[in-house]
C-alpha cells in the first residue's frame, strides 16, 4: 500500500535520516517528511514512530507525531473554532491546523450553522487530491453508538448536542447516550447544528429513542409568560389595552405568545392579585 493511501490515518514509519528542518521517515519504499513543528522530542535514525499522515497547505505529504482524536473511519466529538460563511466551519481535531467542514456538508440555512464552541460528531474524509476534510456522522452512525432509553427516563431533564437539523425538527445525542428527536412544535426556535441543548424527555419510543421538548414545563412557562406580561404593564405605567378579548394576532405580535398561553398567564396574575381587567384593558393592582 502506498503511503499516500494512508492519508488521514496513523501508521508506523522508521526514521531514515535527520534533516535541518526535521526528519525523513520511510516505510522502506517511500519517504515522508516529519517537520520539526510536528515533533515532540528528538529522534534517532532507525527509530520507529507512530505518526499521522496529512497534506500541508502547500500540498506536501507530512507526518506528525501529534495524533488527532479522529481519523478516517474513526469518529469523535470536536469543537468548532471558527466560521467562514463562504466555505464552512473550522474544527479543532488536535492538530496545529484546524480542519474544514465544508459548506456543502452543512445545513442550507446558515442561521443553524454551528458557532465557535459548539460540538459536532465527525470523522475524516479524503478527497481525490488526498486533502483532508471533516465528514458529519450519519444517523446510522449515531444509532450505532446510542443506548436505549427505558420508561424510567420519561420526564427527565437531559442535555445533549444537535447532530442533525431539518424544518420538521432537530435530532440530538444526549450525554446519557440517548438518540432523541425534537419536533418543531417542541422548540421556540430552531437550534444550531452542534449546539448544546437542555430539555426534557416527553416520550420514550419502543426502539429506545426519545422525544425531547425544549419548552419550559407548564408552571415554568406560566411564570415566564406572566413575567413578560407584567414587565410590559409596568413599562406602560401599569395599564395596557390587552385582555381576554384581544385578538390572537395582536397578542402574538406584542408578546410573542399564543392567545391560550397569554390567557393562562394573565389568569395566574389575576389569581395572585397582581392585575385586574376592566373594559378590555388590564391594570396593575395598586396596594
Automatic annotation (TrEMBL):
S1 motif domain boundaries: 155-217
Protein origin, superkingdom: Bacteria
Gene Ontology terms, MF aspect: nucleic acid binding
Listed InterPro entries: CvfB_fam (IPR014464), CvfB_S1_2nd (IPR048588), CvfB_S1_3rd (IPR048587), CvfB_S1_st (IPR039566), CvfB_WH (IPR040764), NA-bd_OB-fold (IPR012340), S1_domain (IPR003029), WH-like_DNA-bd_sf (IPR036388)
One Pfam family hit: WHD_CvfB
TM helices/strands, residue ranges: none
Similarity comment: Belongs to the CvfB family.
Name by which UniProt lists this protein: S1-like domain-containing RNA-binding protein
Native organism taxonomy: Bacteria, Bacillati, Bacillota, Bacilli, Bacillales
